[in-house]
Amino acid sequence: MNKIKNSYFSIIVLFVLLSCGTFPSNLIAQNTNDSIVKQSWQKFRFELGGYLANTSSSLRLNRSGSGIGVDVDVEDALGLNTTSITGMFTFNYRFSQTNRHALHLSVFQLTRTATKILENDLEIGDNYYPAGSSLSTRFALNVSKLSYRYSLIHDERLDLYLAGGLYIMPMDLKVERRVIEFDEKQLADLVAPLPVIGVGSSVYLTKKWMLKNDMNFFYLELDSYKGNMIDINLLLEYYILNNFGLGLGYNSFNIDVKARDKDAGLGLGFDGDIAYHLSGIVFFAHYSF
């Protein structure tokens, strides 16, 4: 996890530079087509695309009443693929006469399944699986993001905004062992909505090329709970028509949750640690009106 956390620094520095609009003026074309610029700030915007994601996750479930558990590399131990592709949908609605206020919704789901015969004994919390066991695993993550955005700067070329909202992220890990009959265990589930704050910007580089970046962050620490999340997007868009174009970019999504009481009333169905890291290429088509 330290390696992952250290990688945040360079990404965040680049993000801050982009958000602050630190572009040499000669990189922003002076002949920007006003009809294209104005079209990008239309009230309604839809995006439909995909996410080619590289996934790594670790899990430690503590034994009941002990506070002690074994760290497990989920992909290696349970045979889950590290690379997956999933669909994504985004909707943005601008309101008010100045177009400085907006509601933003984004949804994606990543479900991975695998069947593996264990080469070594495996212990996850109170569950023990001896070598030779046949395990079928389903690990699902559903992410719905709903936020309000306010534009600090909003002109014909640049939109710089602050954001606040909720990430609703049901996360569910189930393992099924075939003995005489199937024995299914729900090892961990996480459903609590996470309040986030964020910052982002969109800027025209030329009359058809736009650079966008967005970062959302969450951190909370209580007596029996500690969690953080960071979601970063760097996107480049090309306008084929005034209101239609294609986009390509990079996303990094990380969540780290530590719970010491699964009955703490926070929607956490486990006692232990979960770390989930996604990163990869996003691609999409967008339409606005």
Secondary-structure arrangement, i.e. CATH architecture: Beta Barrel
CATH structural class: Mainly Beta
Mean pLDDT: 81
How helical, in percent, are the residues? Answer: 10-25%
Spatially, the strands of the biggest sheet line up as 1-3-4-7-8-11-12-13-14-15
Number of strands: 15
Domain count, please report it.
1
Structural class: mainly beta
Structure description:
By secondary structure, the chain is mainly beta. It has a single domain (2-288), classed as Beta Barrel (Lipocalin). Helices cover 10% and strands 62% of the residues. It is built from three helices and 15 strands. It has helices at residues 2-19, 34-40, 74-78, and strands at residues 44-61, 72-73, 83-95, 101-117, 122-124, 127-129, 134-154, 158-168, 171-178, 182-190, 194-204, 209-222, 225-241, 244-259, 272-288. The protein has a ten-stranded antiparallel barrel with strand order 1-3-4-7-8-11-12-13-14-15. It has a two-stranded antiparallel ribbon with strand order 5-6. β11 and β12 form a beta hairpin. The longest helix has 18 residues, at 2-19. 29% of the residues are buried. Residues 1-10 and 21-27 have low confidence and may be disordered.
Helix-strand blueprint:
Elements (H helix, E strand, L loop, with lengths): L1 H18 L14 H7 L3 E18 L10 E2 H5 L4 E13 L5 E17 L4 E3 L2 E3 L4 E21 L3 E11 L2 E8 L3 E9 L3 E11 L4 E14 L2 E17 L2 E16 L12 E17 L1
Antiparallel strand pairs: 1-2, 1-3, 1-15, 3-4, 4-7, 5-6, 7-8, 7-9, 8-11, 9-10, 11-12, 12-13, 13-14, 14-15
